[in-house]
UniProtKB/TrEMBL annotation:
<protein>
    <submittedName>
        <fullName>TetR/AcrR family transcriptional regulator</fullName>
    </submittedName>
</protein>
<dbReference type="InterPro" id="IPR009057">
    <property type="entry name" value="Homeodomain-like_sf"/>
</dbReference>
<feature type="DNA-binding region" description="H-T-H motif">
    <location>
        <begin position="32"/>
        <end position="51"/>
    </location>
</feature>
<feature type="domain" description="HTH tetR-type">
    <location>
        <begin position="9"/>
        <end position="69"/>
    </location>
</feature>
<keyword id="KW-0238">DNA-binding</keyword>
<dbReference type="InterPro" id="IPR001647">
    <property type="entry name" value="HTH_TetR"/>
</dbReference>
Length: 205
């Protein structure tokens, strides 16, 4: 009689968190169950039982990484009032540039690239989902009159392109000063745009 998949358990959650911390250091590209299990005090057999397969473990790790990144991005964003995309880029870039976030962001970049190259299977949809996550955070900074129009989507897409491009460069070079200066230049352009929209509204600039 086939063995039923186990229900979520405290042990599974403990091992998932330990495996996630391991992945932040070692990445996902060459993840092997035996060294992973040894590092987190488990065994390949236990991991396969709890996660059903290596792919099941990878899916759980990707979900954990995405949830972690989104929670931190939302903490960096979500203003009390729509503050404009310049404020969004400034806040999010400050978070992205912090050295303590590099392990998570390197893991994100690895998963993003693998999702592009492997559109099916365990990596399916990861890259697209993170684009939607980031655009959602940026949308929270836009006033409804801008956010709900086509121009609003174009402006936050541009903001995302700047942030993501600068992030990938930062992960490759660690040249925070150069990239912060480049992001600051883009902030000036965004502030000009936000100021134009304020001028069309209540005059607050």
């Amino acid at each position: 009689m086939p063995q039923e998949a186990p229900a979520p358990s405290a042990r599974r959650e403990v091992l998932l968190e330990a495996a996630y911390q391991y992945a932040l250091t070692h990445g996902l590209a060459d993840l092997s169950l035996r060294p992973l299990a040894g590092a987190i005090g488990s065994s390949p057999r236990v991991l396969l039982f709890l996660f059903e397969s290596k792919d099941g473990l990878l899916r759980a790790l990707l979900a954990r990484a995405r949830a972690d990144q989104l929670a931190l991005l939302e903490r960096a964003g979500r203003p009390d009032r729509p503050a404009g995309l310049a404020e969004a880029v400034e806040r999010v870039w400050t978070w992205l540039a912090a050295k303590e976030h590099r392990p998570l962001l390197r893991l994100w970049a690895e998963a993003y690239a693998r999702s592009l190259g492997r559109p099916e299977g365990v990596w399916a949809g990861f890259a697209r989902a993170t684009v939607d996550d980031w655009l959602g955070v940026l949308a929270g900074f836009q006033p409804p009159s801008e956010r709900d129009g086509g121009e609003g989507l174009t402006r936050r897409t541009l903001a995302l392109a700047v942030l993501r491009g600068a992030l990938l460069d930062l992960l490759a070079t660690d040249d925070e000063a150069r990239l912060t200066a480049a992001v600051a230049r883009q902030l000036d352009l965004l502030r000009d745009g936000d100021g134009d929209r304020d001028g069309d509204g209540d005059g607050d600039g």
